[in-house]
Amino acid sequence: MSMNDYNVYRHFSRNGEARAERELLQTADGRTWSWRETDEASARVARYLTELGVQPGERVSVQVEKSPEALMLYLACLRGGFVFHPLNTAYQPGELEYFLGNAEPAVFVCDPSKAGDSAALAVAAGVRHRFTLDAAGTGTLIDGCRDVSPVFDTVTSAKDDLAALLYSSGTTGVPKGIMLTHGNLLANTRSLVDAWGFTEADRLLHALPVFHVHGLFVAIGCVMLSGASMRWLPTFNAGTVLEFLPECSVMMGVPTYYTRLLADERLTAERCNNVRVFISGSAPLLEETFRDFEQRTGHRILERYGMSETNMNTSNPLHGERKPGTVGPPLPGVEVRIVDDAGSELPAGEIGNLQVRGDNVFVGYWKLPDKTAEDFTDDGWFNTGDKGRIDENGYVAIIGRSKDMVITGGLNVYPKEVELFIDDLPGVKESAIIGVPHPDFGEGVVAVVVADGDDKPSEADIIAAAAAELANFKVPKRVMFVDKLPRNTMAKVQKNVLRDNYRDLFQ
Question: Which domain holds residue 293?
Answer without folding.
Answer: 236-401
